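Quick illustration, no need to memorize.
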Amino acid sequence: MSTSNKRPSRSRQARPRRDGRIIVRGVERDRPDLRKLSRAVIAMAQAEAEREAQIQHEQKSVQGTAEDASDE
């Protein structure tokens, strides 16, 4: 077995991702790791809420700009 086929070991320390992507890898266990699962679900919910808030903000600013233009 050559050493070039081995993957580098990953640290166990969690690092925040700046690109917004969440990577989930399955590991077979007797019981699920509820802490990790709950953190993943919370992160997904926060990302979805942030996207929805951004869309609402953009819609309000477009409507406000259109109303300002019609007032002139």
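The chain has one helix and no strands.
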